[in-house]
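Data availability excerpt. The first of two example chains:
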Amino acid sequence: MNKLFIDSREDSELTNEVLLKCKEMNIPFTKEWLEIGDYTFNNVCFEAKSTYDFLLSVLNKRLWNQLDNMDRAFDNNLVIVYGSFQDAYKEYRQYGKSPYGMIKNKFYGAMGKIILDLDCNILFVPNEKIAAQLIAVVCKMQPINRDVYNPRLIKQRKISTSDLRVDVLMTVKGISEKKAKLLIKEFGSIMEIGEAEPSEIAMLDGFGKVLAQRLSEVLNSEEKQVI
């Protein structure tokens, strides 16, 4: 049976809201020590943070280790940040002295980095109730046998790089132009990338086990690959 696992160390208003939503939506759950993430459901990992916790994890750089571990272990990763930046900065000012503008840039800059550079989704919501609702909805939908929307990127794409090899690699989910160029630099050709072990690919900066395995499967599959 599919079950939501909740980190046993989580004891917050958000956790209480998640438990209420699970009961309301008949989602089985259990609490246990989780090495990665705050909540997990099948191949989905959730990292949920208040705006203040998110800000601290950005400043001490712990966030990037957390997201790297999530990417290596799960297919689908979601960061949920709840609250307001003003509340986070107000709490930060009790201990830190950096100016408002600098902290704001770091806060939103981290969100931008996640959106642009990582194989991870991020949602910024106003409170715990909405965060809990999102976690519950994803858990409810994830096991359902449903049609998955797959945009036809190649037909709609208007801009390409000057290197067809890079363009081809970028059609694989999670491969940005930066990652595609790194692959070409390290392995030389698409054929050699396909022949590389996923463990070799996973060692590259910005790659994890899940993305490396996905790339290897796409390049070596004899079946139709949907973009």
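And the second chain:
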Amino acid sequence: MAAFLGLFRRDLSLALRQGGDTGLVVGFFVLAVVLFPFGVGPEPEVLQRVGAGIIWVAALLAALLSLDRLFEADYQDGELDLLALSNLPLELAVLAKCAAHWVATGLPLALTSPFLALLVDLDPRSIATLFASLLIGTPALSLIGSVAAALSLGARRQGVVLSLLVLPLYIPPLIFGAGAVEASAVGNGARAYLLILSAITLASLAFCPWASAAALRQALE
């Protein structure tokens, strides 16, 4: 546990000290949502209908920006080899890095979303649901993204390969995250959608660290 927490603190401090990942992700998220009303028009009815989807798609693309650096720096400087040889299981090392990635990128996206919801004129009843869906769903984005990042490690065009691998896997969180907000807006209740989204996150927590660790071992051979 001490090694796990130490790796988590190290990755988180590096991300926050440099500031690039968090600032880039949040900046892209805000700009992407701001640009949508210029494309679809400022009519409140249109924005309310597509607002949840806009914010969720922007969050997915923003989370994708920093995934290629999840393991790349450690792979290049040999840190990943030391992690694989250490007493800390590689699966727990992956989990620690995913947790740090979520705190540095996913959590700021969730915290920013209520302000952007006002920009797209989202129904006030749905803003809390939007925040809850992103808070529940963004850990799954980091965990699923770690598998794609590990599989594409060392590829010549890692960013392109990573995008092709991870975007199809992001469809289930997108469907149920945006669906929860839409259900809340029409008064049907978002509980079922949020429960399914929670199940996706828990399933990712159970399987993704092992899949990422297996891919990393293959890349290190």
